[in-house]
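queue> holo job accepted (2-acetamido-2-deoxy-beta-D-glucopyranose)
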Amino acid sequence: MAKNIPAMFDHRLKLIICLVISMSTNISAHLTADYNNISITILGSAVAKGAVCLDGSPPAYYYVKGFGDGVNNWVLDLEGGGWCASDDFCATRLKNNLGSSKYMNGTHEFGQIKSQNQTENPDFYNWNRVYVAYCDSSSFMGDNIQSETGINRRGARIFNAIMEDLLAKGMANAENAILAGGSAGALGALFHCDGFSELLPNAKRVKCISDSGVFVHAVHLPGADRRANLFAKVAAYQGIPVDSLPSSCTSRMNSSLCLFPENFIGDIKTPLFLIETAFDQYQLGSHYFSNGSAWKNCTEHLELCTPSQLQVMKDYGIAVRQTLQEISDTTSVGMFVHSCLRHGHTYESSGWDSSYVLANKTIAQAVGDWFYGRDFFQEIDYDNELPLFKNCTKLTASTYDPSLYA
Ligand SMILES: *[C@@H]1O[C@H](CO)[C@@H](O)[C@H](O)[C@H]1NC(C)=O
Ligand SMILES: *[C@@H]1O[C@H](CO)[C@@H](O)[C@H](O)[C@H]1NC(C)=O
Ligand SMILES: *[C@@H]1O[C@H](CO)[C@@H](O)[C@H](O)[C@H]1NC(C)=O
Ligand SMILES: *[C@@H]1O[C@H](CO)[C@@H](O)[C@H](O)[C@H]1NC(C)=O
Ligand SMILES: *[C@@H]1O[C@H](CO)[C@@H](O)[C@H](O)[C@H]1NC(C)=O
Ligand SMILES: *[C@@H]1O[C@H](CO)[C@@H](O)[C@H](O)[C@H]1NC(C)=O
Ligand SMILES: *[C@@H]1O[C@H](CO)[C@@H](O)[C@H](O)[C@H]1NC(C)=O
Ligand SMILES: *[C@@H]1O[C@H](CO)[C@@H](O)[C@H](O)[C@H]1NC(C)=O
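queue> job finished
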């Protein structure tokens, strides 16, 4: 027996050494290949605060710690995904990630402004990075505490609960911080921008980024009532408190119109950057602009557009640029406005660090320069020869998904 023990140990030791070697090979391979594959954090403690997804499940986010000189810097990115504004439509979200954390992915691939790859993301790669999951369908703005219908509408509480949690995780000591968002998440970032800044009174720089969040009213173009009604329905159903909207806007117009960014961006005090196109694929191709089907084919293949659709599209491009031009004339809001058919720029790396160049800068460069104050950036691409969108073939058109539309 006694003799065998060393042999057994020896054998086990070899096995363990082998295991450790193979594991560490796997781990390092895993780290290089998968360093952007980030696990979900489900915030169970939020439930007691009434901060829940549409189905009553806890809200969630994906978080990875900062390192090196990024250890006290934070970038938060709010997920988008349209809105819902009726029991029937919201019910369709109870069994997917847009209404329930039970259906969210366990991991999320971080890219672009959240990428840990220094080449792709030189200014933010080592920051604390957070992707805030979207499960309220109100751009993190609703607070309808009545839920007799079994559909919870608590977007604002979700935002507050997650902020509280991140502050405790170290965000309270942030030196640099960004609140960003895409699409409906961008609307949330605009809405919460000044409030976020107030949470970080000791930070050196706090700024906000809206990616494809300027949903225009375009009051003189077809569908203006449809667009206004959509936001009015969202505000009413989701219970967006009127006093949470900027009073500088609500004192001037019907409060439901204060969900259009053009009506309140000028009053945001925190430095802001807009990433936009004059031809937003969602706004043009969805029932936000028309009723969907008629526009889908046209926005994917110009040759299928009717002459009147082409005219509307030209007029729309002009209206968007005018709206943004007015913002840039009266504010120091940074902006990168190109002319490709697109919705969202931080989903695909091509949108962030290569495909678009204005004034010799990619979005990644323009945003980095603006954030650190190396260079101000306010560019609107306008080519009189091209009244329609440019065909940016390098980009895959995002898929038309009717389920995203209220
Ligand atoms: C991310 O990690 C999870 C869990 O380890 C794994 O199942 C998934 O395949 C990974 N995703 C990618 C894109 O590597
Ligand atoms: C969840 O993961 C699947 C598979 O990787 C992916 O196709 C899908 O887009 C992800 N959903 C979200 C909301 O990120
Ligand atoms: C980082 O990004 C660059 C440029 O996209 C790419 O060539 C490189 O392979 C990436 N590195 C890793 C480790 O993924
Ligand atoms: C504001 O607009 C909504 C939606 O169009 C409408 O129902 C409401 O009556 C308006 N309120 C006022 C005070 O005009
Ligand atoms: C959708 O738009 C098309 C073309 O403009 C029109 O013919 C159709 O009646 C509309 N459908 C609905 C449901 O509004
Ligand atoms: C859109 O294109 C598809 C396939 O080419 C066609 O079946 C459909 O009828 C088109 N829709 C409209 C509204 O033109
Ligand atoms: C852009 O050009 C490509 C190649 O010529 C073509 O297949 C595609 O349909 C065009 N896209 C649009 C939106 O016109
Ligand atoms: C454009 O930018 C690149 C690298 O950022 C630089 O090398 C080049 O000189 C710039 N070109 C002009 C015309 O400014």
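queue> Strands lie at 37-42, 60-64, 73-78, 107-109, 128-132, 176-182, 205-211, 272-277, 334-338, 378-380.
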